[in-house]
Amino acid sequence: MANMKEIARIAGVSLGTVSNVLNGSARVRDPLRRRVEEAVQSIGYQPSALARGLRRDKTNMIGMVIPDVTNPFFPAVIRGAEDVAFSNGYRLVLCNTDNDHVKELAHLNELRTYLPAGLIVIPSNFSDLTKQAESYQRNGAAVVCIDRLPKRWQGDSVTVANEHGAAAVTRHLIRLGHQRIAVIAGPLHLTNSEQRLRGFRRAMSEAGLPVPPEYVQETSFDVPGGRAKAMLLLRLLPRPTAIFAANDMIAMGVIEATRSLGLQCPGDLSIVGFDDLEFASLLNPSLASVFQPGYQLGATAARLLLDRVRGDTSPARHIVLETELRIRESVAPPVDASQPPQRRKAATASPPGTKKRTSTRRRS
Amino acid sequence: MANMKEIARIAGVSLGTVSNVLNGSARVRDPLRRRVEEAVQSIGYQPSALARGLRRDKTNMIGMVIPDVTNPFFPAVIRGAEDVAFSNGYRLVLCNTDNDHVKELAHLNELRTYLPAGLIVIPSNFSDLTKQAESYQRNGAAVVCIDRLPKRWQGDSVTVANEHGAAAVTRHLIRLGHQRIAVIAGPLHLTNSEQRLRGFRRAMSEAGLPVPPEYVQETSFDVPGGRAKAMLLLRLLPRPTAIFAANDMIAMGVIEATRSLGLQCPGDLSIVGFDDLEFASLLNPSLASVFQPGYQLGATAARLLLDRVRGDTSPARHIVLETELRIRESVAPPVDASQPPQRRKAATASPPGTKKRTSTRRRS
DNA sequence: TTGTAGGCGTTATCAG
DNA sequence: CTGATAACGCCTACAA
Predict the structure, then answer these.
(1) Other C-beta atoms lying within 10 Å of the C-beta of residue B24
(2) What pTM value is reported for the model?
(3) Closest in A49, A94, A252 to B94, CB measured
(4) Protein footprint on strand C: which nucleotides are under 7 Å from a CB?
(5) Which domains does chain A have, with CATH numbers?
């Protein structure tokens, strides 16, 4: 409807002048510039994003490709990305892949026809976007992978310190006196999942504690998975005194299993999660967890992307954000079988026959 | 890079033929059609969404304008809309407004320059999008409002039966024997909030139960708000025996307040929420709530929108989705003063001077 | 400094 | 049924 020609007519100038005013591409003298600006105001003109994109070979859209917006960890990531994008004049096109790399591919291929400025991708299972990314980059669009990375990903990335966070929370359990600690990992083909398991193993091995194979379970990142694997773990003899769940949904499943077996948390079992979703602190007992800065993850990715869009051609960057331990009521020292319980349901001691090593007690 | 001209060259046909094959706009004979299709396959050609949109005056984008993606109720709505949109070849552009109608306006104005097929809007506070919507509709784009409606909204809408759901859950409390029921409403300038309060009042008045002004609190839809108002309510004399929270976040705040005052739920206080977010069933005690079909809300809106896009010009439709009562552990009959307390520390008495009316006990 | 023309990739129109 | 051509709105040379 309203186009540049209209503005030019109203302001009594030529098309080129309008364009120059709009894009600051050339100095336009004040009287004319003023007339153009007034014309723009008067009819609320906004340039066509389509025509502009077609002409410039690039739009102000950023494709945000994620597995599933209803996964409670992702909204914060999206929000972080959107805030940075919006305040820099960019918009987010949201695509859910359902962890299906075919759907992911479809999105990637179609998104390209919008000539987006870039892509922020949380890769789906088994995705190998190297080829796609190259194709985007040839078109001058940047691609940033976040949260987890495809195998052999060489491009820009923003992730969190999964291994470090997992190790830290495991060490905390060990310091409290736990020796039989089980882990319920997420799908191990996901890099973040695998890193968390690695961190767990590292902390255990540093402390000289054994990790029997049956103490390591793998499941999907959800409540039913956590419940099922917890039922299994809690029937083992000897029973673990603590479980590290690879995310809060799994931890939630563990809590349910604990409850349904009539066990107390943290009395009989300490539970820790990962993510620190909003509800973790609202549970009863409140859930100890490793906080992941979801908002920062998205915001950082967007900033990195915009740097690239603006011409930063430095080598690929791999930004790793810190996690943070959030200790809450769901963890406590293990109960010692050899001593009578001191309080109603909390007591601490090393079970007999346990090798006790002094932990290094790193303070940071 | 790859464009229609290229396809035409490879297939040895003219541009128009390619276009006709791609859009089915005219019957093309098999040999040629085949050649075109092969050419398209061979180089993985996809038409430029930009050029197509510019030419057709409409893209396959749908603007999804919501207050805040990190509000835990919205992701399901988004997902519902995205699924329907995607499977029909449409894409979602996500815009957070932070309930700021200035930001909302900015998004609306800018979104228009993409020539989206339509808009799905969860209006921000105090927004009056009538003018904006008209402008979109003049451009052939449809606008559907969901969840809550701007004042005087005349266009298509999809909402849930807020009043009915609130009345149903209130009646349930009444049937259990509660007489002193307080409500913590959401911001009353939001239509959904106001409807829930209305439903509550209706059920109470049907049962002939009084609703003292101090039993009606208003707050924002979040945990701190719920906690603060609950602290206030729980110090009143006589204390309410049940609280209806206008959403689950508020209910969560009520639970926290209850705990911090050393009261038992449901022993001393029954609590019900609204939304039935995923975590509601995971709390301890599990939270009774009124389920809102978030996914359906989004999916229905997208379907309605697509109907319009495809030329449905029937009068504005106002679709109202059913809610569903999810009774869980957080509700129980009130403890009667005339009987000895049954549990360890639930003891509540009707303070002297309370009018006791027999409830009408309606069954539905 | 200001105005003008060409083309981005597509679709629609119209002549063959 | 097929093939050439004009527009969609904008940006960017280039000419004045």
Answers:
(1) 8
(2) 0.90
(3) A94
(4) 1-5, 7-14
(5) 4-47 (1.10.260.40), 57-160+294-321 (3.40.50.2300), 162-292+324-346+356-362 (3.40.50.2300)
